[in-house]
Design goal:
By secondary structure, this protein is an alpha+beta fold.
């Protein structure tokens, strides 16, 4: 009788599997593979080798606290010659003396997560079992049978593997790109993402069901959307929008997700203070990319927050045009969420592709602060019964705004406001390039097109279907050049009288600092022309000067000023409103790389900025990070004041660990300038 088969060790072939599964950055100490694709391992036996005629090998995989074959969290499968589609399989690849090379394949619908792998070996009547090790299973955008399959190699590289990118801020007329370090493959991040799944309320309620449902990116996306905010769980970030961030970190300060996720884990899953929409979206993007779901951050300009789903935002203003009363329904200057790529087997065909997910806590969805995934296509078509949360996302890009002017005598007048269109310039980073891509057309049909009317009819968007009346007098806010932080500048109310009558009007111009979510600060410029006469068929331009002295102390970190013009014609009882958000440019951060950029060789980044103000800068600090360039964030504080017009310069040591293209992301802070961002691409060559 043949002697018993004894396993000496199991080689998990980390290097080969990491390369084949696009997980090399995660595979340095343990096995990380993608579902629906075979991975290799080699069994080394003591004494004699495996003999197919006398030995039988059976494998077990299990995930979750109480694995069960019934719900798909456990599998038992024998070594076989045939590969069975849609099931766990093991097959021999080759054999040499005491070594047996195998490939094991997880079905493309297996739940993702941490798995235990064991072996039962039997020879005749004798048998023994061995633990082979653990592996982490991820979604697989490279596998056609996976629900997150993406057909383009360039897009898989961008939306799954790229660790840095841009988030768009500013205003619709001045789009600002902010660099961000997603860092989904940095040390410890994968474990943090799995931990985030394991403390979500659904797991705590019913761990077996939760682990089983991790086979679906729809389910996982929904869990991540809820866990990135801490509103109903031990989630990652606490949101705050009141400009008081003294007991935490200002949302504008962050330059990457890695620092945030590590803080959350280090402090025992205590919420990290503070986040705003782009921080929530960026952290969600990191987690979803890490788990293998193709994801991108998108920004919508003039984004409506519609609480009652009537697709209408109504502003009640006093006779000076200032908003009064309830501010719960607002137009945000911009709002960020993420889109993830997946099929939707839970919906009728045609809804696969990009799905919007919004982790910023705004409204509850099925009792939890999460939003989506909802197919972007459903938003475009106005199909608002589509899961999940279609009415809220539809309103963000399509709500109508009505302004009511309330006079002192109690009378209320509807004002015409042509300047505010909801849902403009929806933006994301272009694939493979440091440029913006406009994806508005994926959310809405061209304005006035028959398809747009049909989508509005389906969405029962009666406000938008009403005909727009043409105005005989038009007004818009125009700006000059050189609106840099620290400078004085002019803005103009430009008025056209397109009629044959002269008109006697009053024009009130007002500039106020504003946060990106629409909350107004103090005035920083005002003009009231009681007797403005408009000649027939004429144009008029009225200038408002905005002084640095007036805005310097009340500008928020959003760097935004809202200019409002209200034109009243008492004789015709008409009110015309125009608004524009102005973004003030920060100074540039210059980054020089000193030394030859090679793997595992020290490199120095020289980072500098010129003080654009007429006063010295105090408490200056540069913070830098970059996936593959620094192991953790580095901050350099400058002790001396930086005089007006002078340059401040520091050097930071880098140690690049990986070959290829990386981004060094920099933040500069001081008493007078907040959240100034810069970046530099660095290409690292082999050692």
């Amino acid at each position: 009788m043949a002697e018993e088969l004894v396993l000496e060790r199991c080689d998990l072939e980390l290097e080969a599997n990491g390369r084949d599964h696009h997980t090399a950055d995660l595979c340095r100490e343990r096995l990380v593979v993608r579902r629906g694709q075979p991975f290799r391992l080699t069994l080394h036996f003591e004494g004699r080798g495996y003999e197919a005629s006398v030995d039988s090998l059976t494998f077990n995989t299990a995930t979750g606290p109480a694995p069960s074959e019934e719900v798909g969290t456990k599998a038992r499968f024998a070594l076989s010659a045939a590969v069975e589609e849609g099931a766990w399989t093991a097959a021999v690849v080759g054999q040499q003396e005491g070594a047996l090379s195998l490939q094991i394949s997880a079905p493309a619908h297996a739940p993702i997560g941490l798995y235990r792998l064991s072996l039962e070996a039997s020879t005749g009547y004798q048998g023994s079992s061995f633990t082979l090790g653990h592996f982490i299973l991820l979604f697989n955008a490279w596998c056609p049978a996976d629900t997150v399959y993406l057909d383009s190699d360039e897009e898989r590289l961008e939306y799954v593997l790229t660790q840095q990118g841009f988030i768009y801020q500013g205003s619709a007329k001045f789009i600002k790109s902010v660099p961000w370090n997603f860092g989904q493959f940095e040390d410890g991040i994968l474990d943090i993402c799995l931990m985030l799944l394991d403390i979500n309320p659904k797991f705590l309620r019913d761990a077996n069901r939760d682990c089983s449902r991790r086979s679906s990116p729809v389910y996982v996306g929904r869990v991540v959307s809820g866990m990135v905010n801490c509103n109903d769980d031990q989630g990652v970030l606490l949101g705050r929008w009141d400009n008081n961030y003294g007991d935490g970190i200002s949302p504008m300060f962050w330059i990457g997700s890695v620092d945030i996720l590590r803080r959350w884990k280090t402090h025992g899953c205590q919420r990290v203070k503070y986040g705003q929409c782009w921080v929530f979206a960026a952290v969600a993007c990191t987690v979803l990319r890490c788990l293998g779901i193709p994801t991108r951050v998108v920004t919508n300009y003039n984004s409506a927050h519609d609480q009652n789903s009537n697709l209408l935002i109504e502003y009640f203003r006093n006779e000076f045009g200032e908003i009064q009363g309830d501010k719960s329904e607002m137009i945000w200057n911009f709002h960020c969420w993420v889109e993830s790529w997946m099929t939707r087997p839970d919906l009728e065909p045609g809804y696969e592709g990009w799905q919007a997910l919004d982790p910023t806590p705004q409204e509850k969805s099925e009792g939890t602060y999460c939003c989506g995934p909802v197919p972007v296509r459903a938003i475009k078509e106005g199909n608002l019964s589509t899961k999940y949360d279609a009415p809220f996302v539809f309103a963000e890009v399509n709500a109508d705004v009505i302004d009511w002017i309330c006079q002192e005598d109690g009378s209320v007048h509807k004002s015409v406001n042509r300047s505010l269109v909801v849902g403009l310039k929806i933006s994301t980073k272009r694939v493979g390039r440091d440029e913006r891509e406009d994806i508005t057309h994926t959310y809405k049909y061209p304005e006035g097109s028959p398809e747009e009317r049909e989508a509005f009819a389906r969405a029962n968007h009666l406000n938008k279907l009403a005909e727009k009346e043409e105005t005989e007098v038009a007004m818009r806010i125009r700006v000059g050049d050189g609106m840099n932080l620290g400078s004085d500048f002019d803005v103009f109310a430009h008025i056209d009288n397109n009629t044959s009558q002269a008109r006697a009007c009053r024009l009130m111009l007002c500039a106020r600092t504003v946060s990106y979510n629409g909350v107004l600060g103090p005035e920083c410029g005002t003009k009231d022309l009681l007797n403005l006469s408009l000649e027939p068929f004429s144009e008029k331009s009225v200038t408002l000067r905005i002084l640095y002295d007036k805005y310097c102390d009340c500008l928020t970190e959003s760097n935004l000023i809202k200019v409002r013009a209200l034109l009243m014609e008492p004789a015709a009882d008409s009110y015309l409103l125009a608004e524009r958000d102005i973004y003030l440019e920060n100074p540039d951060i210059k980054i020089r790389i000193l030394g030859e950029p090679k793997q595992n060789r020290k490199l120095v980044a020289e980072v500098s900025l010129r003080n654009p103000l007429a006063v010295p800068l105090l408490d200056c600090a540069f913070t830098v990070e970059g996936a593959g360039l620094t192991e953790e964030q580095k901050t350099v504080e400058i002790q001396d004041p930086v005089p007006a017009g002078e340059e401040v310069k520091v050097r930071v040591d880098l140690l690049p660990l990986h070959v290829g293209r990386h981004k060094l992301v920099v933040n500069f802070q001081c008493d007078k300038l907040k959240a100034v961002k810069g970046f530099r691409n660095v290409i690292i060559g082999p050692a």
